[in-house]
Amino acid sequence: MEPTLEISILRETAISPELNRAIDTIDTLAFSNDARDHPEISGIEWASHEWNALGCIDGTLVSQLCLLKREIKVGDQLVWVAGIGGVATHPHWQRRGLASQLMRAAQDFIRHKMEVPFGLLICAEKTRPLYQALGWQKVADELLYIQNVERRTLKTCVMILNLTTDPFLHGIIDLCGLPW
């Protein structure tokens, strides 16, 4: 029997230095090959986040993701989204459905606490099926972001979670800031 994943969502300001080190360790282990596999993301400065969704087993952090709220531009229209980034599970605990459990909790948080019409994340093609199974839809193969006061294009899978009855907007997606 798999142990129970204890999930909490905390404001970034409530994260202790010790917990922050545990988050950094999981990120390093989970994403160590991503820059090599996707050279376009090497050297990118990532946006700060507002919340962390944390999954612990027996008091030990095993999975985490970051959340932020931002107004972005799609085509010529502004829309608020909840950004999800840094979805990571310690390699020892991967392939057990923990990230899916954490994503479902984050989706509930987005729906009921953040109160935005859409969630938005970027991911590698190899992880797209995980998010699709949770209701996310691919909407683009690239987006715009700002880095060092320069508008850049990131070619990657862009997915949204629709939290309204309105369809997602059509047009070029501009994060209007750093990517997450």
What does this entry look like structurally?
Helix content is 23%, strand content 41%. It has helices at 17-31, 34-37, 98-114, 128-133, and strands at residues 6-11, 51-57, 60-74, 77-89, 118-123, 137-147, 150-162, 173-174. The radius of gyration is 16 Å and the shape is globular. The protein has 4 helices and 8 strands; from the N terminus they run βααβββαβαβββ. With 180 residues, the chain is α+β, with helices and mostly antiparallel strands. The protein has a single domain (6-174), classed as Aminopeptidase (3-Layer(aba) Sandwich). The termini are far apart. Strands 1, 2, 3, 4, 5, 6, 7 and 8 form an 8-stranded mixed sheet that branches.
CATH architectural type: 3-Layer(aba) Sandwich
Based on Cα principal axes, name the global outline.
globular
Overall pLDDT score: 92
User: In CATH, what is the homologous superfamily?
Assistant: Gcn5-related N-acetyltransferase (GNAT)
Note poorly predicted spans.
none
| Overall tally of domains | 1
Helix content: 10-25%
Gyration radius, rounded: 16 Å
The name CATH uses for the topology is Aminopeptidase
Order of helices and strands: EHHEEEHEHEEE
In total, the number of strands is 8
**First CA to last CA: what distance?**
35 Å
Largest sheet: 8 strands, mixed
Class per helix and strand makeup: alpha+beta
